[in-house]
Amino acid sequence: MRSEHPKPERPQRDVDFSGPSRHGHATGEHSVTVSHGMKPMVPFRVCVLTLFPAMFPGPLGHSLAGRAQAEGRWSLETVDIRVDDAPFGGGPGMVLRADVVDAALQATRRPEIPFVYLTPRGQVLTQARIRALSERNGLVVLCGRFEGVDQRVLERHGAEELSIGDYVLSGGEPAAMVLVDAIIRLLPGVVGHAESLREESFERGLLEYPHYTRPQVWAGQAVPEVLISGHHQRVAAWRQAASEAITRERRPDLWIRYQEGRV
Ligand code: ADE
Questions:
Q1: CATH number of the domain that 119 lies in?
Q2: Cβ neighbours of residue 203 under 8 Å, at least 6 residues apart?
Q3: Does the CB atom of residue 144 touch ligand 1 within 6 A?
Q4: Model confidence at 24, in pLDDT bands (50, 70, 90)?
Q5: Within a 10 A sphere around the Cβ of 95, how many other Cβ atoms?
Q6: Which domain holds residue 250?
Q7: Is 203 inside a domain boundary?
Q8: Residue with CA nearest ligand 1 atom 6
Q9: How many domains does the chain have?
Q10: How far is the CA of 52 from the centre of ligand 1 (A)?
Q11: φ, ψ of residue 117 in degrees (nearest 5)
């Protein structure tokens, strides 16, 4: 199945709707540009609402995600949301308008597809949440910029607010790329060795153990003896102990949850 499908073409579709103009000083026409994949049977549909559609696919067009897109395992649609306005109540920055975001959502959303708004104010993403999202049909992602998005449209569409970490980016687009990348690699057939997904960090509530390859001795340092013993049980025990030690040292929060069996 891998190379049977050519990379999907991404034609542009323009959807026009009326609404207040940028900064709300006049009314007029605003366009929503929708570009999307052509595969009729795309299993996982990603739709990104953004003020900067040219940022996409960006890194998602390369490596694992790019190959998976070319194979038709997922598709990407971007919607250009062009209008923001000054916040009621004053304060710096601009806010994405409810009517504009709503029109973009009406044009693209299907009820069975989760809708995520990326914001540093959201719940911090976990591998468990990523896995659950990867088991759906697709995802609509709204990227915040400026001060944010009018809260009413988030509530009306039941947005799940997610953050990729406790730091502030200049906008949600890099966060959307992180989110989508993490989901895509969990889609069936995307990562060649499904076993490596089970072993990796967070899957079992622990950070992953260290890896080694040739040369066996490098810069005066030898590979841990047990790894060349060929004894599978001893190797597994060593890896488990290494995972536990590294988690305890680096992520006491994860370690406590692991010990309590809350993973
Ligand atoms: N937008 C700005 N910072 C963000 C973050 N940490 N996570 C998600 N979206 C963001």
A1: 3.40.1280.10
A2: 127, 197
A3: yes
A4: very low
A5: 19
A6: 209-259
A7: no
A8: 120
A9: 2
A10: 15
A11: -110, 125
